[in-house]
Amino acid sequence: MSGLFGVIGGADCTSKLFVGVDYHSHLGTQYGGLAVLNGENRITKKIHDIQQSQFKGKFYQDLQDIEGKAGIGVISDSNEQPLVFESKFGTYALCTNGLIENKSEIASELIENGETFSEYSKDGVNPAELVATMISKGDDIVDGIGKMYDQIQGSITLLLLNKDGVYAARDRKGRFPLVVGEGDGFHAVTSESCAFSNLGLKAKKHVGPDEIVLLTEKGVKTVKKEGEDNRICSFMWIYTGFPASDYEGINAEEVRERCGKALAARDSVKADMAAGIPDSGVAHAIGYAIGAGVPFRRPMVKYTPGYGRSYTPPSQETRDQIALMKLIPNEKIIKGKSIVICEDSIVRGTQLKNYTLNKLYNSGAREIHIRVACPPLMFPCKYNLSTKTLEELAARKAIKSLEGDIKKNVDKYLDSDSDEYAKMVEWINNDLGSTSLMYQRLEDMIEAIGLPREKLCLYCWNGRK
Ligand code: SF4
Question: Is 383 in the pocket of ligand 1 (CB under 6 A)?
C-alpha cells in the first residue's frame, strides 16, 4: 500500500502537508516524498528513504527549505515519489498508489515506440514515470489520465500537482479511497480521512470510482464524473486502513467491532478473555468481547516506540525481527488462562505461530483460540503490494499439503460449509499449534462492512475481480 495526501490554500501549505502525509505512515515503509508548488509556479520535491527512520524525523528539516501554496505527498511501499515532469502540459509533480499488473508490457511497448525511462527500481520502471508517460498521450491532463486508465490492468490512484492546483484521480473500479475535505481556508485530499481531524479539516466528499477532481484555492470541482462500477478494497476495513478513517463513509473501527461480534455469534468457546494482536486485531477483539460477554484484556502489549507493522517490510528477516521485538507478553495476565486471540487475517501464519503463540504458551496460557476477522486469504492482491505469491499463503500451504498441488480443487476450499474447507482450517490450526481456529465467513464480513457485495473487492478471498 501507499498513502497519498494533497493540500492547497493559505499563504503556505507545507505544515499541513507534512502532518497530513505523516498520518499515512502505517501504509508504507519504503519512501516518503513531498512536492510543493511555490508562488512562481516552480515545484520543489523532497524524497527520503524511510526504511530505518520515521517520516517526521527525515522530513522535519526539509520544512525549513520548502514553502508554497499547494503540495502533494506520499508514503510509498515501493518507489521513490513524487516525481516531477516537464511536459506539454507544463511542469507537474505526480504520485501514485496501486499496482500496474501489465507494467512491463506497457513499458516495453512504449520503449519500442521511442519513449525513454530514467527512474528504475528493483521491480522495473517507476510506476509514477510510466503513468506520466501514458498521461502525456492525452489532449490534456484529464484526457491523459483517462487514456492511462484505458491501458492499465490493476489499479492506480493518483495525485497530480501543477499550476491549476491538485488533481486527484481514483481508478476505474475505485479500489482505493480518496476523500476530499476543507477547512481553515484549505482544501485537501487524502487516502486516510483520519488525516483531516487534527488539521482543522472536515471530510466533504468521497471521490467516486473513475472520478477526477481538481482542488484549487477556490474549491473543489469534478472534472470527470464518477463511473458506476465500484470495487473498493475490503481489506482496508479489515486490516490495512487506520481505525479512525472512513471509507465510503463507513468507519474502519466500527467495521472491525462488527467483525468481532460476528465471530462471537458463531462461537461456542468459553474463554477467560478476548484479546487482539495489536494494532488491527484490537478492535476485532473488542467486538468479540462485547458479543461473547467476556472481558477484553491485554495479554500482550505492543512496545510502541519504533516498531511499525511487520506486514509491509520487504524481507522476511525484517518482518521476523519486528514481530519478535514489538509484542511483550504479560505473564500475570496469561498464566493458566483460556484466551481468544482475534487476528485481522492470517497471511503466512509464521509470525502468529513463531511469536504470538510461542510467547503466550511460554507465559503459561492454557488454551489459545484463534479467531480471524476475514476468511482464509486465497489469492495474492492484484491491485497493490501485499502478499506476492500463492506459495506464501497459509491456506495455499494447507491445500498443497492436502492435495499435493497448490492449485487443485481450490473452489471446494472457498466454500466454508465444505469438508475440504474444514480440513484446510484443521490443517492450519495444527500447523499453528493453537487450541482451535475459526475464520470469519465471507457473508458475515460483507455484512460487517455494510456495503453491497457487488461494490466490494473480495479478490483476496474468492479470486473474482
Ligand atoms: S485483492 Fe484484497 S487487498 Fe487487493 S484490493 Fe482486493 S480486497 Fe484489497
Answer: yes
Q: Is the CB of 459 inside a 6 Å radius of any atom of ligand 1?
A: yes
Q: Report how far ligand 1's centroid is from the alpha carbon of 386 (Å).
A: 9
Distance CA 335, CA 327 (A): 17
Determine whether the shortest distance from the Cβ of 342 to ligand 1 is under 6 A.
Answer: no
The minimum-distance atom of ligand 1 relative to the CA of 234 is 7
Domains and CATH numbers, the chain: 3-230 (3.60.20.10), 253-453 (3.40.50.2020)
In this structure, the number of other CB atoms found within 10 A of the CB of residue 423 comes to 17
Distance CA 454, CA 442 (A): 13
Strand 31-37 and strand 202-206: the pairing is unpaired
Q: Is 76 in the pocket of ligand 1 (CB under 6 A)?
A: no
Q: Residue 273: which H helix or E strand, with range? A: strand 273-276
In order along its 465 residues, the chain shows pLDDT tens digits of 899 999 999 989 999 999 999 999 999 888 999 999 998 899 999 999 998 788 988 898 888 889 999 999 999 988 899 999 999 999 999 999 999 999 999 999 999 999 999 877 777 899 999 999 999 999 999 999 999 999 999 999 999 999 999 999 999 999 999 999 999 899 999 999 999 999 999 999 999 999 999 999 999 999 999 999 999 999 999 999 999 999 999 999 999 999 999 999 999 999 999 999 988 899 999 999 999 999 999 999 988 655 555 445 556 677 677 777 889 999 999 999 999 999 999 999 988 999 899 999 999 999 999 999 999 999 999 998 655 689 999 999 999 999 999 999 999 999 999 999 999 999 999 999 999 999 999 999 999 999 999 999 999 999 987
Q: What does the alpha-carbon distance between residue 439 and residue 429 come to, in Å, rounded to a whole number?
A: 11
Best of 176, 457, 458, 465 for a ligand 1 pocket test (most atoms within 8 Å of beta carbon):
457
CB 456 less than 6 A from any atom of ligand 1: no
Spacing, Cα 457 to ligand 1 middle (Å): 6
The rounded distance, in Å, linking the Cα atoms of 281 and 36 is 37
Does the beta carbon of 247 lie inside 6 Å of ligand 1?
no
Residue nearest to atom 8 of ligand 1 (CA): 233
Per the structure block, which three cell numbers stand in for 359?
510467547
End-to-end CA distance of the chain: 18
Distance 38 CA to ligand 1 centre (A): 37
Determine the 3-state secondary structure of 24 from DSSP. Answer: coil
Q: Grid coordinates in use for 353?
A: 505461530
Among protein residues, the one with the nearest Cα to ligand 1's atom 2 is 460
- Record the cell numbers describing residue 410, joined without a space: 481450490
